[in-house]
Amino acid sequence: MVKPMLRSHSMARKMRTTPGHQSSIIYRRRKPSRAKCALCGAVLGGVPAKRPAKLRRIPKTGKRPDRAYGGRVCHKCLSNSIIEISKEL
Ligand SMILES: [Zn+2]
Q1: Which of the residues in the chain have pLDDT under 50?
Q2: Residue 33 C-alpha to ligand 1 middle, in angstroms?
Q3: Ligand 1 centroid – CA 81 distance (Å)
Q4: By C-alpha distance, which of 67, 61, 62, 32 is closest to 49?
Q5: CA dihedral 64, 70, 75, 76 (to 10 degrees)
Q6: CB 32 within 8 A of CB 51
Q7: Predicted confidence (pLDDT) per residue in 62-73, tens digit
Q8: Is 1 exposed, middle or buried (0-12, 13-18, 19+ CB in 10 A)?
Q9: Domain boundaries, the chain
Q10: Pair 48, 61: CB distance under 8 Å
Q11: Cα-to-centroid distance, 63 and ligand 1 (Å)
């Protein structure tokens, strides 16, 4: 049996052939997922996909666009919603 830390699915698994031609499972860290728009699901630009330890070293303006709903909603959805609100007024 593998180490207890490898039994959870927090680590990604891959089958690899060893130099001795035996197949074995290797365990790697999963890639961090990219931030997505809350309305349409598009991948947000200007938002880094980094681990929390690395995000701590980045200034706040480097983590998301410096505008209303930056880092939550993409620019297209924000533009559309502003237009829709102005039509209602
Ligand atoms: Zn969107």
Answers
A1: none
A2: 17
A3: 10
A4: 32
A5: 130
A6: yes
A7: 999 999 999 999
A8: exposed
A9: 1-30, 32-89
A10: no
A11: 18
